[in-house]
Amino acid sequence: MTLDEILVEIEHAEKIVIMAHETPDGDAIGSMLSMYLALKKMGKEADVIVKEFPRTFAFLPGANKVKTSSDIEKYDLAISLDCTDLKRLVGREYFEKAKKTIVIDHHSTNTMFGDLNFVNPVSPACCEILAGMFEYFDIEIDAEIGSCILTGIITDTGGFKYSSVTSETFEFTAELLRKGVNVSDIYQRVLETRTKSNFELLRRATNRLELLEDGKVAFTYINKKDEEEVNAEPGDHEGIVENGRSIEGVKVSVFIREKEENLYKVSMRTGNGSNINVSDICYVFGGGGHPRAAGAVVSGTVEQVKEKLLKEIKKVI
Ligand code: 5GP
Ligand code: MN
Fold first, then answer.
1. From ligand 2's centre to the CA of 158, what distance in Å?
2. pTM surpassing 0.90?
3. Tens digits of residue pLDDT in 235-250
4. How much distance in Å is there from the Cα of 289 to the middle of ligand 1?
5. I want to staple 287 with a disulfide (CB 3.0 to 4.6 A). Which of 170, 191, 228, 282 is the partner?
6. Nearest residue CA, atom 11 of ligand 1?
7. Which atom of ligand 1 is nearest to the CA of 286?
8. Residue 202 neighbours by CB under 8 Å, 6+ apart
C-alpha cells in the first residue's frame, strides 16, 4: 500500500470524515487536527468526530471545529488515525458506512481494518507518520499543522524520552522550531500542566498504590466515584500510570480505571530499566498497544481484575 494510493483517494473524495481511538490522547488529537488542517490546504473540508475532547488540547488550531456526531451518513472517505481496531474507533458508524476507508497508525497490534492501511510500528507517534506523509503530498507543514504534529510527538514519546525516538524526530522538531512553532510552550501545556482534577486523581491513586510481587508490579486504580468527587473531565486520568513505572525495581506498572460497573480500562507500562512487553500481556485480554505502553478492557471488581492481570504478569516477570 503506497502513499500515492492514499493521495488518490483523498483527491477523489468530497465528503471526508476523520476519527481516532476512544479516550483520545495527544497523538490521537494531534493526528486528527493536523490531518484536518492538511486536507484544508488541499481544498477539502473534512469532519472531525471526537466524543470526549480533553481540555488540555483545546488550544490547538482546529480544536473548535470538532464534532461529536454528523448528519452525513455515508462519507466518500473515512480516515482512522492512531487506532488499532474498529472496536476502539470513535465514530465507527461513519467508518463502516463510508465508501472508502483508510487506516493510518503506528501500533504493531493494528488489525488492518481499512481498505488501505498505512501502519508503521517503528514510528514513535502517528503524528510523525503524518509529517512524512504531508511532506510527500507536498503540503507545507506550517506552524499550525506543526503544533498539532508536535503535540502528538511530545505526548507519545513522553517528551522525547522513550527509546522509540529517532534522529528524525529531533530533525523534524528542529525544523518546526525554525518555522516558529513554540516547542517549549507546547511541551509545558501538554506534559507539564495538570488540571486540578487530574492532580486529585493522582493523589488518590498514589495513596492506593500497592507494590506487589516483591516490588516488581505497581498497581493502582480509580473508580467512577473518585472521578465524580473530583469533577474529572475527559483526559483527567492521563499520566497516572506513569507514576508507578518510575519506582525502583518496578517491571510493570498497572493502572485501572472504572469504565462501567464491573468493567475496567487497563493501562500498563513497562518499568524503567525493564524490557517486558506489556502489549503481549494486554493482548491476552483482547487489548494491545506498544511494547512499553499498552491497554485492554477487563471485567470484574478491582480485586478480580487485579488477580486476572497478575496471573498473566507473573508469567513474564
Ligand atoms: P493508555 O494506557 O495510555 O490508554 O494506552 C497505551 C497504549 O495502548 C496506546 O497506544 C493505546 O492506543 C493502546 N491501548 C490502550 N488501550 C487499548 C485497548 O483496549 N486495546 C488496544 N488494542 N490498544 C489499547
Ligand atoms: Mn499514538
1. 11
2. yes
3. 999 999 999 999 999 9
4. 5
5. 282
6. 289
7. 20
8. 194, 239, 240, 243
